Amino acid sequence: MMAGRGRLVPCVCLGLFGVLCWVWVSFASFPDDQLPLEALDAVDRGAFHPQSALSEMEFASISSYRGPGNSDRRRNKELPIILWWSGGLFPHFPGDTERIDCATSSCLVTSNRKVQLYKRTSSIIFYGTDFRAYEAPLPRLRHQTWALFHEESPMNNYVLSHAPGIRLFNYTATFRRESDYPLTLQWLPSLDYLLQPVAVPLQEKNRLRREGLAPVLYMQSHCDVPSDRDRYVKELMKYIKVDSYGKCLNNRPLPEHLEDTSTATGEEAGFMNFVARYKFHLALENGLCPDYMTEKLWRPLHQGCVPVYRGSAAVADWMPNDHSAVIIDNFPSPKALADFLKRLDENDDEYAKYLEFKNPSRITNTRLLEALETREWGVNDMTKPNYLNGFECYVCDQENARLAAERAYKKAPKKNQPPQPKMADNSHMGCPLPSPGYGDVQDLSADDGWLQIWPQDYWQSLDQAEGLESLIRHNESDPSLLWKHIQNIAVSRARGKH
């Protein structure tokens, strides 16, 4: 394998020693004569465009650097290979194969699925939203590990929220703090982002209130979601005025020049100025899971508005202090929440307490401060690498350490221990069964649209996770047999044998 021209790509390597690095990548190619014949089928890898923080990511470029713990001088043809199964997310360009030099070791990384069965392909990285049980690369080879990168909503793939699904993976990078490479604060660019001055002063917000602006903003155009947020907001609207501009529960039109930004996650100035006029922003995530927090939460904090939040049950762990967001689940009913918001709306001193975190001395959450200070990847920060390349290097260093341990054990089994198997568990991703946004599930009518979709999707995802686990256990090579295995499991369960 010949290395050609190269370039520097930002990377963070959390390997054996957690060292920050920038990696030099060289463009490489795989000669067909080094590939197994059964792996030469063409694969359709259509472009994949995730709706996530990745769409806003910027890439930095600085001079070449090799991690101080990396003394790897092997040629490309001697390196382990890491395959990005979701080719549209391959964090390199313009080629499909490159060399990376990380903190303690080096690898070849590729999006070329032809190498799936190649003996040097030691790990496969999957993008969670793009992972489908019926498209999994089978057979799963004993010498290969699987790695999961998933920072998007749990609604995108509930297969990963079940034990049989998540334990397919050896390494994880998810929004959960318990994952191997946590992405919990991916939507929070920096501490300075939180400390930005209040965009619209309280005096001006009060003036706008007197002119008829509602105290509460709702801006949502993705309506049919697992969190069932519209059901809650609809009930809340009975007790307090809410201006809703999106397609969901719409009661006010957007100004014409902002119509294209109704569902935007970007921060276009005109859109930001428009929403900053409101005292309270309804910030309800589309899926509920510990540590899943998006721009819906961080944007109002940035602007100096008060988020009225439902999403991560552990959100208080990440707030600037204990008085910066109104947590919906702390209130027994939408009416109780509305009464509380009305009191804040009418009391400037009490409302202003929710903005005190704009003063750095009032940020008391040491977990938040330490996480922002110590994370080795950045969000649109040209001085730090991005988390895609970071996780890639984490896998590279882990795999090289594993392979070295295997070689040492085979060479001297009495002197060396074999590498310990590593497996993800529910703490790396597991999200709960969707529940109604308001009321009890048993009170919903049988033809309720939400009821017909999301609870069923959750349990059907468990069937798929168990089916894929069965395929792998039986060493199947045809993923289309998934449905047969699911049926067999269902029959066994009905007979009390599963």
TrEMBL record:
This is GDP-fucose protein O-fucosyltransferase. GO terms for cellular component: endoplasmic reticulum membrane; Golgi membrane. Belongs to the glycosyltransferase 10 family. The lineage of its organism: Eukaryota, Metazoa, Chordata, Craniata, Vertebrata. The keyword Signal applies. It is a single-pass type II membrane protein. Residues 410-438 are annotated as: Disordered. Transmembrane segments: none annotated. InterPro entries: Alpha-1_3-FUT_met, Glyco_tran_10_C, Glyco_tran_10_N, Glyco_trans_10, GT10-like_C_sf. It comes from Lates calcarifer (Barramundi). Residues 216-369 form the Fucosyltransferase C-terminal domain. It is an enzyme of class 2 (transferase). The keyword Glycosyltransferase applies. Pfam families: Glyco_tran_10_N (PF17039), Glyco_transf_10 (PF00852). One of its GO terms (molecular function) is peptide-O-fucosyltransferase activity. Residues 1-28 form the signal peptide. It catalyses: L-seryl-[protein] + GDP-beta-L-fucose = 3-O-(alpha-L-fucosyl)-L-seryl-[protein] + GDP + H(+); L-threonyl-[protein] + GDP-beta-L-fucose = 3-O-(alpha-L-fucosyl)-L-threonyl-[protein] + GDP + H(+).
